Every structure is written in structure tokens, then in C-alpha cells.
Amino acid sequence: MKVLVTGGAGFIGYHVTKNLQKKGHSVILIDSLITGNEENIPEGVAFYKMDITSPEIETVFIKEEPDIIIHLAAQISVSYSMKNPQEDGKVNIIGTINLLHLSAKYHLKKFIFASSAAVYGTPVRLPIDESHQLMPTSSYGLSKMTSENYIQMYHQSNSLSYTILRFSNVYGPRQTSEGEAGVVSIFLNNAAQDKPIQVFGNGNQTRDFIYVKDVAEACVRALDLGENTTINIGSRTQLSINHLIHTIAKISEKPLSVQFEPAREGDIEHSSLHYSKAREQLDWAPHYTLEQGLREALKEIQRKRRRTHEAGWEKSHSI
Questions:
Q1: Which has the closest alpha carbon to 35: 54, 3, 8?
Q2: Catalytic site includes residue 140
Q3: 42: cis peptide before it, omega within 30°?
Q4: Could you say which of 14, 48, 80, 140 is catalytic?
Q5: Looking at the domain assignment, is residue 214 inside a domain?
Q6: What is the dihedral of CA 17, 18, 24, 25, to 10 degrees?
Q7: CATH number of the domain within which 148 lies
Q8: Could you list the residue range(s) of the whole structural domain that residue 278 is in?
Q9: Domain for residue 218, yes or no?
Q10: Closest listed residue to residue 208, CA positions, set 118, 88, 99, 131
Q11: Residue 95 falls within a domain, yes or no?
């Protein structure tokens, strides 16, 4: 199977690509590299540096003739979306429409879309299942919900098969500090550098954290399963930010300094996703515990810091 992955140089894109390669699929990556990183492009994949809103994307569909698209590219910051709704809408909505149009035009077998728990807004019940009302409280959540609607419309009008995956807060190795879920990366990096951790709110707000390798597995399973449906990808756990900090302190084996700041506009208080439909439709369930995932992510940060330190030492001692 030839799979086109947008946002392929992002941290989720890297893990999705590695999983696809492991299972014998041919992979093509598209990424603007605005937030993506060339270091996340594995060997053996075709890469195109392009903006998903650009007409030139069509050249990739013509040249590569992909069978399926996994659409991960997005503007992912909730706070940015509230300050810049036009740019958020351009990337997340117009970019998705562009890809849908080309997917229908070139008769792709399936459109797999990375959506978000942000489409639910403030939950009226927990854990949230897929039948929960959609009332996003941020421009980011609204743009994801609108993209979902366009996907369903293209299915109805063009018979384009799809799977929509609503991710909870994804974290793991190679994650940057961008986006709401980047809180884990920020906390881990600060812990590694003995810097204080900044918390927006009182820390009692809860999130459903899901490890990136579990997310990648769900994306790859959707190649053949979960036909024309919407599926939550989360852990069904409610973990407070304070509990997250406690766990990071435990694996770091040192106390952490915490600074509390006012809550941010658009952030919800509590979230947890039911994943029973993922189990039924994708034969999927999360494999990694929070502590296991955090340990892997911290090891990657420590390895990167060692490489940077060694490179700096070699440069300072070169003739």
C-alpha cells in the first residue's frame, strides 16, 4: 500500500511513518517544515516540502499515485487559534478541503483524518464517547469539527471512504513545545534542565494523555478498519496536571519547582475519552501506561541533550 502522510515531519508523523514502514507500506511525506523537523523524516520515504493549502500539492498526487492519505498536518495550538483564527482556519479547514478535493479527484481508497477531543468542548459527561455533543470552545476545536463535516460531505458526494480519529492529548519522543499536548514535552524539558514548571490554572484540571506510539498504531490500523466512522483515540483516564508533575518528578528522581499562572482562554477543565469504539472497530486499545511513556520521552530528551553537549564540546575543542 502506498500511503501519503501530511505533517509527516511532525512528531506524530514520524511515529506513524515508522509504523507504516515496519508493516511493509510505501510512504510519501508532505510537510511545510514550519513546525515539522527534517530530523523526523526516516530514510526510504519520498519527501515533499509543501504547504497543504497550496495548489502544487496536486503534483504529488499525480507523480506518486497514493492509495490512502493519513492527514496529520494542522495548526495545533489552542492559544494560537484564539489569537489567529484566520490562520487557524486557513491551515486546518482550507488545507483539509484541498486534500479532500484531490483525494476524490484521484480516487484514493481512503481519507484518514487526525481530529481532536477539542471538538467536544466542555464535556457534559465523562468519559466522552463519540455520541457526545460537539460544542468546541476554541477556534482550533471549531476548525477540526468543520473539517470533519467536510470529510463526511465528500463521502456522501464522492463516495470517498474515511476514518476520523479524535485524539486526546498526544505525547511522546520528538514532541515539540507546540500545541496543548506539548505541555508534557515542556515539563520534561524543564525537568531535564532543572527549570521551573509553569502551570496555567491550579493544576487540578485533568487531561487524557495518550502515548504517540499507541496513536500511530491506531492510524495504521485505520488503513483497513473503521470504515466511514468517527473514533476516539484516548486512554479513558483523567489525570490532573499536578499528578503529571508528580509522575515526572518520580521518573526524574528530583523535586520540581512549579509556578502557577492564570488559566488560558479556550482551555477546558476536564477531559477523558472513551475508547470502546476503537476496541470494536480497530481492535485497538492503549498499550503504554503514563509512566512508561514518560520514561521513553525523557530518555529521548536526555539523549538529545547529551548529543548537543558533545557536539558543543567538540566544536569548542576543535582547531
A1: 8
A2: yes
A3: no
A4: 140
A5: yes
A6: 0
A7: 3.40.50.720
A8: 2-170+210-236+272-287
A9: yes
A10: 118
A11: yes
